[in-house]
Amino acid sequence: MHGQDSHPLSLPSMLKASKASAADDSGLGDFGDEAGLDDETEMLMLQQVLKQTMEKKRVAIAKQQAQVLEECKAAAEKRLATLEAAIAKEAKDSSAAAKVTFTKTTQRLEDRVAQMEALTHKYQQEMAALWEQYSEEHAKLENTTLQVKMEVEQRKQGVKRRIAALAQENEAALAEATKKVEAVKGKTGKQSQLAKLLQSLAAGGDI
Fold first, then answer.
1. Where is the composition biased (Low complexity) (predicted)?
2. What is the pLDDT of the chain when averaged over all its residues?
3. What letter does residue 7 receive in the DSSP assignment?
4. How many CA atoms lie within 13 A of 173 on its CB side?
């Protein structure tokens, strides 16, 4: 790791360095080394050295971690910026393509609308002409139907009149026939009476 010693001190070296540091701090110098320290003091000094060493390592690791995090952050920001630029470019390109497509599609739709309007106008004109023809033919049909009805009614009335006239003629003929029959009956009765009279006379002559 960055910030760490390439060759860590051994425990005796650390103790020696601690003694030297303690002697320098106390102002005793070499006298302190010659006097010597008891075991308890040496242990305390050793613990202090270990604590300082661990603290240095912790600080170095923290710095390294911060550096790594900073590098990661910078890399992430760079990737994000690159991605945003790519997205912006893609959006711009897509927008341009969409605009072209929209323009072309709009033009085609306007052409279709114009065609439909032209067809609708033509259809309306043709329908108006056909409706006029239909109205004329329908009026002719109504007139013809009315004429036919009138002719049929006239024929019915003519037939009724002929039937009534024929009935009158038949009644008159029947009355005339009845008169003739009655006249024939009258003659026949007279002839019968005359025959009886002749018979009666003939019978008297025989007596």
1. 8-28
2. 78
3. S
4. 6
Output the CA torsion 38→40→44→45 (10° steps).
20
User: What pLDDT, on the 0 to 100 scale, is given for residue 62?
Assistant: 86
**In whole angstroms, how large is the CA radius of gyration of the chain?**
75
Delimit the domains of the chain by residue range.
11-104
Q: Which two tokens stand for residue 129?
A: 């002409």
Task: Provide the 10 A C-beta neighbour count for residue 23.
Answer: 18
Handedness of CA 66, 70, 76, 80 (dihedral sign): positive
C-alpha pair distances (Å), 198 with each of 187, 193, 204: 17, 9, 10
A 10 A CB-CB count for 46 gives 15
Q: How far apart are CA 33 and CA 26, in angstroms?
A: 11
CB atoms within 10 A of CB 52: 13
